[in-house]
Amino acid sequence: MRWLKSLRPRRPQPGRAELIDRKHRLEGEISMLAAEVRRLRTSGRPTGDVTPRLEKARSKHYQTRLEIDRADPGS
């Protein structure tokens, strides 16, 4: 239902600098979660609750990189 989307108010798009800050925060989160997964694997413990969070952070990072590419360089 495409027309329902048009009824929602549009949120202001974040600026390029804000997107870059978000990307850097996500990189830190990804590093931390990847280290946690490695630590759990080496100790032989399950990684089931950390792995989805890692994949979600990687996905957000990728989407943020795409947004940065589309963002106005002057913003």
Features:
75 residues; mainly alpha; elongated
Q: How would you describe this structure to a colleague?
A:
With 75 residues, the chain is mainly alpha-helical. It has one domain. Helices cover 71% and strands 0% of the residues. The chain has 3 helices and no strands. Helix 2 runs antiparallel to helix 3. The longest helix is centred in the middle third of the chain and has 27 residues. The model has no long low-confidence stretch (mean pLDDT 89).
State the secondary-structure class.
mainly alpha
Low-pLDDT stretches are none
Mean pLDDT over the full residue set: 89
Strand content of the residues, in percent?
A: under 5%
- Listing every helix as H and every strand as E from the N terminus to the C terminus, the arrangement reads HHH
For the record, the count of structural domains works out to 1
Question: Outline of this structure?
Answer:
By secondary structure, this protein is an all-alpha fold.
Helices and strands in order, then pairings?
Blueprint: H1 2-7, H2 16-42, H3 51-70
Helix pairs in contact: 2-3
